[in-house]
């Protein structure tokens, strides 16, 4: 619980030398644990000011991998989660400390790499692409951080019946934006959510070489936390954010984000949709 208090105090402190106790925590403040893709794509910059205007709640976002976000929720150090690792989410909710889990949006993952495409994966299915990368021992850069993207990558290797390793396989242990930068510098392949790739495409020597598989679907859920995770959890704030992000106004913002710049939205709003039919 101390780390949660330090996060909030560091956020609201205006008198550095006075320490945490000098400045009261705002009455309506919450901690959102989310993925680096929502930050690196710019979506949080679109959503959070609108939520504050609509609700009066101030938000401190913690952008980490989905696995880390879930762990923050488990420890009572976040009030609401916005994550994209469905199997891990379902396991976490089953533990009993979380509240409602609701579908928010989706986009997709893409396999990106250098134009030269040493492994010749362009147009191949995701499983076949992973086999070709391993067979060619072409450099692959993994996030290696137990994020939703890293979890999807491991799933793709498993489907390809490949155990990656050796000098051709490297991990950054960092977020999507930094991993894309490293892959670009090393002329390597990597797996990215499409939104972060598109936002950073102009600075990268990487192209989309694999896309469109049903297995590359990237689904995001919002999960409310409850007092069962810890006494400091602002369950009212978490519920306020969760209710807002699945409501029509926020879903409209999600559906419009990126359209003007890229000619297509970077995320597809899904609140109320039948998740079983996504990607069909």
Automatic annotation (TrEMBL):
SUPFAM superfamilies: Periplasmic binding protein-like II. Residues 1-18 form the signal peptide. The keyword Signal applies. InterPro entries: ABC-Tungstate_binding (IPR052738), PBP_domain (IPR024370). Residues 29-247 form the PBP domain. It comes from the Bacteria. Keywords: Signal. Pfam families: PBP_like_2. PANTHER family: EXTRACELLULAR TUNGSTATE BINDING PROTEIN. This is Tungstate transport system substrate-binding protein. It comes from Nonomuraea solani.
